[in-house]
Write a structure and sequence with these properties.
CATH topology of the largest domain in chain B: Aldehyde Oxidoreductase, domain 4
Number of helices of chain B: 19
Number of helices of chain A: 5
CATH topology of the largest domain in chain A: Ubiquitin-like (UB roll)
CATH superfamily of the largest domain in chain B: Aldehyde oxidase/xanthine dehydrogenase, molybdopterin binding domain
Oligomer: heterodimer
Helix content of chain A: 25-40%
CATH architecture of the largest domain in chain A: Roll
Strand content of chain B: 15-25%
Strand order of the largest sheet of chain A: 2-1-5-3-4
CATH superfamily of the largest domain in chain A: Beta-grasp domain
Order of helices and strands of chain A: EEHEEEHHHH
Largest sheet of chain A: 5 strands, mixed
Shape of chain A: elongated
Distance between the termini of chain A: 51 Å
Largest interface: A-B, 59 and 63 residues
Strand content of chain A: 5-15%
Radius of gyration of chain A: 16 Å
Chain lengths: 161, 788
């Protein structure tokens, strides 16, 4: 089995993988980064979104063996260096953008990719961008509000300070 | 009261771990030396198993064991939790539901064999090597033909495809028939409540473990109610004594009903773990979820509404075929009956109601409770036929409802469908809806849409549901084979912080935040000093789990009662410390005081005294400060609401766009309004999904056509509008101590008829005489209705 090395959340990490091993499987089963979730088998749900070389990628749709030397960012690396929630994560908590939490890692990673490309998206742009991320719990309202708030736009607050 | 008590929109503490990738779901757990399980599932809907040969599979690399139905012929059957009697008094037909299919496979996805191997990939490869000789038989798919022509049977030993033929209330049948026969006006509507696939985003997963040193089993599983799983595995399926089986449900990624039930995979991983002496883990693929999770809804109904010419309701009568699929899932017989027929009076003073439900076996996945469970079906039937009736009589849809509403001074109100509603104010909700949804401005918005070439419609809905199940004595009379109380233990630790063990189990509802708000409010302590423990049968007294919007109303009430007991005992200790009699002690904001004096002692000092009982009347007061309560409600709770939606229909394509969705609900007392708003919004998305997008479709051979997220249209962010949610119209539940009614299912109950009513309204305003369009109201169906 080939040994693959990636820079994941700022650290070089290696694992031996089969040719058929998906990036999501390598992260979860070989490197014990369980924050990346797998919610489907057709690349539809987006729970597994990570960033590969700065781009949002569904990690269930790419072979680990193709990514030797890549830079990968996952949900585990998103918090501030002091461990506190980053702006997007904090906005998700403030605006009740999660319930069961299963889609949340993918949502946060997609939101980060969106705001990198489009720092002040309209609500319609947020909703369109999230087309590839399914949430069954929230009805997306809290998620959309969170992403708008994280981009510095005014959104009604639902939580206590 | 400190910050963070009842009524505070406290941020959720569980969010921190979910947002940083530190949630712990079942598939995230891999005990040392874990082996992996994969299942062989039927490709045909109905088939006779001639032989299953696992000999090649067991020779594959890494394979540890293979199992077939033969290995489980000696164990018990996974039972239905509710016994329904037919109109003639005969008990329902209850086929066996084995761990693995034996003799026959009965739906596509029915598991007939399993392989355990060192790795998941090896297990999956080995499943491919199983040789199954299965003769495909004709499939029973369409309910009407399954009833009319039982030439093909789902269960050969039952001699019919009808599970039961239920009448509610059978004694009211003749009077209802007579009332309809003599009524000045009768509106009839035939409709379908489409089959839905719950699709919690976390697929089901289970890990079985066995310790040969102690004989103890452990099942870690994706469950909404771990104690029910333990009960079913112990008492019905595998016979493992409850004291030798721990069921753990860690973080659970959504459920919506589908994770209430015990499934065969859970029994299999336990049996395999015992045989192999190793942990055995199985995680469903999404394809397996589609094929084997319990589905929801799937009713075909004829409803008749009889009324006076002025719209005063005289009678409702329904005939329903309810699909139960190939086997009876645990709640499948309660859902179309007591969770459906009992709500068929709706919000109305109608004097006559009769409901007939025939439950039908088909060669499809089992159908069971899915968000709302019976109540969405009742509400949809009623609120669609009422709109049709209003249109026929030329009465405004708001007015016809108001004319028949139970008025706020009529509570408690005994309905013609056998329930006693304790509180509500449906007119106040409708008053609020008219303002919040700006009915007055509709005409201007309609004209603006018309300028863009779109047909705009306004739909409304009123609903009432029964939650917080239940009074055990009542559900027992109605056929429940379990009690439906809940339990909690409040443990005050020596230094005053608090652990609360609860029988409910959150799978997204925020229990870790909301339950401490109750305890903090009552004890006058900071909610951050209160933690809950849930999802572990070894740590919790008992529990009936989280479903049916019951956690706060039932388990929250148990928490309330246990906290009251803690206060009572703490008062005795405080009286001793203050050297006065307990009657003279009052407790507020965390402080015990002798009435009328400034002699006080804090709750924390009392807790410490309870655990360090030097100088303590040990003969009168036991040490420690921990109390348990089992709470069994006196009645169901009755949340209600009024919803409005505006839609635009594109006459060129038939595409429906939801422009607005306004939900006004009466949930009684709200503990955390932020969480409640989120619950409603999620329900609205699922209801709009049912109305416009989602459809579980089997072809005539019993193949699930909508078996992936490529084919089954889950609502996405850009399918939905911004919601307006208001739960400020509170009428207290009169019989539980918190006054809460429950909020989890409301959105999924109130929104489907609202959307369909709006679409029909839009078409009517565009000159199209369309009575009804079945859900999902897809572009092709709308276009076809407009172009007959």
């Amino acid at each position: 089995m080939p040994k693959i090395t990636m820079n994941i959340n700022g650290r070089d990490m290696s694992a031996e993988v089969e040719n058929r091993t998906l990036l999501a499987t390598m992260l979860r089963e070989k490197l014990h980064l369980k924050g990346t979730h797998v919610g489907c088998d057709t690349s539809q749900c987006g729970a597994c979104v990570v960033h590969v070389n700065g781009k949002a990628v569904k990690s269930c749709t790419i072979f680990a063996s193709e990514l030797d030397g890549a830079t990968v960012d996952t949900i585990e690396g998103q918090a501030n260096t002091d461990g506190s929630l980053n702006v997007i994560q904090q906005a998700f908590q403030d605006h009740h953008g999660l319930q069961c939490g299963f889609c949340t890692p993918g949502m946060v990673m997609s939101a980060a990719a969106l705001l990198k490309d489009n720092p002040k998206p309209s609500e319609a742009e947020v909703r369109e961008y999230l087309e590839g991320n399914i949430c069954r719990c929230t009805g997306y309202q809290g998620i959309v509000n969170a992403i708008m708030a994280a981009s510095g736009q005014d959104v009604p607050s639902v939580a206590a300070e | 009261m400190p910050d963070g008590g009842i009524g505070a929109p406290t941020k959720r503490r569980e969010d921190t771990r979910f947002l940083t990738g530190r949630g712990k779901y079942t598939d995230d757990i891999t005990p040392q030396n874990t082996s992996y399980c994969a299942f062989a599932r039927s490709q045909v809907a109905n088939g006779k198993i001639n032989s299953i040969d696992t000999s090649q599979a067991t020779k594959m690399p890494g394979v540890l064991a293979a199992f077939t139905g033969e290995d489980f012929v000696e164990v018990g059957s996974n039972p239905a939790g509710w016994l329904i009697n037919s109109r003639d008094g005969e008990p329902m037909k209850e086929p066996k539901r084995p761990v693995l299919a034996h003799g026959k496979v009965r739906h596509v996805g029915d598991a007939y064999a399993a392989v355990v191997a060192e790795t998941l990939e090896q297990a999956m490869d080995a499943v491919e090597a199983i040789e199954a000789d299965i003769d495909e038989l004709d499939a029973v798919v369409d309910m009407a033909s399954a009833v009319a022509d039982p030439g093909t049977l789902v269960h050969d030993e039952i001699e019919t495809n009808i599970c039961f033929d239920w009448g509610w209330i059978e004694d009211n049948r003749a009077a209802t028939d007579e009332a309809i026969k003599n009524a000045p006006h009768v509106t009839t509507l035939e409709l379908v409540n489409n089959r839905l696939v719950p699709n919690a985003l976390e697929p089901r997963a289970s890990i079985g473990e066995y310790d040969p040193g102690t004989g103890d089993y452990k099942l870690t599983t994706t469950s909404q109610n771990p104690h029910l799983s333990r009960l079913l595995v112990s008492a019905f399926v595998l016979g493992i004594p409850e004291n030798k089986l721990t069921v753990l449900a860690p973080d659970v990624g959504g459920g919506f009903g589908s994770k209430i039930y015990h499934y065969g995979e859970e029994a299999l991983v336990l049996a395999a773990a015992k045989k192999l002496g190793r942990p055995v883990k199985w995680t469903a693929t999404r394809t397996e979820s589609f094929l084997s999770d319990a589905h929801g809804r799937d009713h075909v109904t004829k409803i008749e509404l009889a009324c006076e010419k002025d719209g005063s309701f005289i009678a409702f009568r329904t005939e329903t075929l309810a699909n139960v699929g190939a086997y009876l899932s645990n709640f499948s017989t309660a859902t179309p009956t007591f969770l459906h027929g009992t709500l068929m009076a709706g919000n109305y003073t109608v004097p006559n109601v009769y409901v007939n439900v025939k439950a039908v076996f088909t060669n499809t996945a089992p159908v069971d409770a899915y968000r709302g469970a019976g109540r969405p079906e009742a509400t949809f039937s009623l609120e669609r036929v009422i709109d049709k009736c209003a249109r026929e009589l030329g009465i405004d849809p708001v007015e016809i409802r108001r004319k028949n509403f139970i008025k706020k001074d009529q509570y408690p109100f005994a309905t013609a469908a056998g329930l006693e509603y304790d509180s509500g104010d449906y007119d106040a909700l409708m008053d609020g809806l008219e303002k919040v949804a700006d009915f007055a401005g509709f005409e201007a918005r309609r004209a603006a849409s018309a300028k863009e070439g779109k047909l705009r419609g306004l739909g409304i809905n009123s609903y009432v549901e029964a939650c917080g199940i239940a009074p055990s004595n009542l559900v027992g009379i109605l056929g429940a084979r379990v009690g439906l109380y809940d339990a909690a233990t409040v443990r005050v630790n020596p230094t005053g912080n608090i652990s609360v063990m609860v029988g409910a189990h959150s799978h997204g509802q925020g229990h870790e935040t909301a339950f401490p708000q109750i305890v903090a409010d009552m004890l006058g302590v900071d909610a951050q000093t209160v933690d809950i423990v849930h999802g572990d049968t070894s740590k919790i007294p008992f529990g009936m789990g989280t479903y049916g919007s019951r956690s706060l109303a039932v388990c929250g009430s148990a928490v309330f009662r246990a906290t009251e007991k803690v206060i009572r005992k703490a008062t005795l200790i405080a009286a001793h410390m203050l050297e006065d009699s307990p009657e003279n002690i009052e407790f507020s904001d965390g402080v015990f005081a002798i009435k009328g004096t400034n002699k006080t002692v804090g709750f924390g000092d009392v807790a410490l005294k309870a655990y360090i009982p030097h100088d303590y009347p040990i003969d009168a007061i036991e040490p420690g400060l921990e109390e348990t309560a089992f709470y069994d409600p006196a009645n169901f709770t009755y949340p209600s609401g009024a919803y409005a939606s505006e839609v635009e229909v594109d006459p060129e394509t038939g595409k429906v766009t939801v422009c607005s969705m306004v939900a006004l609900d009466d949930f009684g007392v709200v503990v955390n309004p932020m969480i409640v708003t989120g619950q409603v919004e999620g329900g609205l998305a699922q209801g709009i999904g049912q109305a416009l997008l989602e459809n579980g479709v089997y072809d005539e051979n019993g193949q699930l056509l909508s078996g992936s997220f490529m084919d089954y249209a889950m609502p996405r962010a850009d399918d939905l509008p911004s919601f307006v949610v208001d739960h400020s119209n509170e009428t207290r539940c009169t019989h539980n101590p918190i006054g809460s009614k429950g909020c989890g299912e409301a959105g999924a109950i109130g929104s489907p008829p609202t959307i369909v009513n709006a679409v029909v309204d839009a078409l009517a305003r565009g000159g199209h005489d369309v009575d009804h369009i079945d859900m999902p109201v897809s572009p092709s169906r709308v276009w076809a209705a407009m172009n007959p």
